[in-house]
Structure formats: structure tokens, C-alpha cells
Amino acid sequence: DQQVKQNSPSLSVQEGRISILNCDYTNSMFDYFLWYKKYPAEGPTFLISISSIKDKNEDGRFTVFLNKSAKHLSLHIVPSQPGDSAVYFCAASLNTGKLIFGQGTTLQVKP
Amino acid sequence: DGGITQSPKYLFRKEGQNVTLSCEQNLNHDAMYWYRQDPGQGLRLIYYSQIVNDFQKGDIAEGYSVSREKKESFPLTVTSAQKNPTAFYLCASSLDISYEQYFGPGTRLTVT
Question: pLDDT (tens digit, 9 = 90+) per residue, A33-46?
């Protein structure tokens, strides 16, 4: 049973526009959410996180929104740059610290 | 400078052989983790360790074993009992079990 789902396997946007990556979850006990970025043949790098007590967290071009009633979070990248092209994973954490990952969304930013 | 190292980057083994993947960190992190990634799937947790000499099974521990004799090191052995060992293996660490995890560069294991 997939507790964290990224239903869009891929997304293509034009440079300078906004990229919106979505993630849905089923377990209301998750208390912390993270986004990771991954290039091919490399380990994921931590991007941004949000606690379940917040609904928004911003860091430069990256903003994560959390809608607890809908069990949905999204990552906004604005403006998108070609270097943002990568696979993005959302992950959710229980108090145990174990992370449950989504399947990933491949973002392509076209120049 | 601090980080997580995994070696080797690529590893090839014959079916029926055990193989050990290395993971070392100099971040002074207490917690360490092993994941595998398969095409089109997210990362799945194999084993994790909150502290030296302690480790727990993750979601897909069958066919794998680990040890945590030192804080810096968390080697993963892929045994011959693992049915589909060919995958990209990622090691991660975090300050403790509740913090963001930082990943190594990964080891791609191919078993033929």
C-alpha cells in the first residue's frame, strides 16, 4: 500500500515559469514532510521540508505548501531554471524518523 | 570536508555470491540508513540504525544483513537469498532519527 504518492511521473515546463510538483499521502499521522532532488546516478539531496504544524515554508525559489485536510503537499519552484531538471521525491516521516518516499516526478525545464 | 561515502560506485557479482556494500560518514551522525531504488519506484528502506550496535529492519529487509560496530560505518551485505539484488543502493545518515537525512552517492549493484 503506497502511503506517499506522486501521481505525475513527469513534468515539463519552460524556463522562467513556475514548476508545481504534487504529492499525496494517506497516513494522517505523518508529522514531517521533505522534498529531495536527485540527478541520475547520484544520491538525493535534501531540498526543503515542512512540519505538519505549518502550511507553508519558503526557501529562495522553493516553496512547499501543505494542505492537511486534503493530505496533499506541493513544491513550487519559481522561476524554474534548466539546472532544476531532475527527479523530485517527496517523503513523509512518522515520529520514528523513518521516511516513506513517493515514486518521484521527473522535471524537465526547457530553455 | 564532511560527507557520506559509498564504495564502489559500480559493483558486479555473480548470482549466488554474497556482496558487501560500504557506507562511511564523518558527519558525526547517530542514525544511518540503507535504501534501494528500482526504476520507476521511490526509495525503499532496507535497514536503519539509530545508534551503534543497534539496527532495525526496514520495509524490505529480507535477503540483506547489516552491522553497526562503529558510529561512522554501516555496511550492507546483500546475500544470495535476496531474489532481485540488482538495484541502486543508497546509504543515508541523519543527526538523529528525527532529522533530515543526507544521502551518499550510491552504489549500482548488478548481479548476473
Answer: 999 999 988 899 99
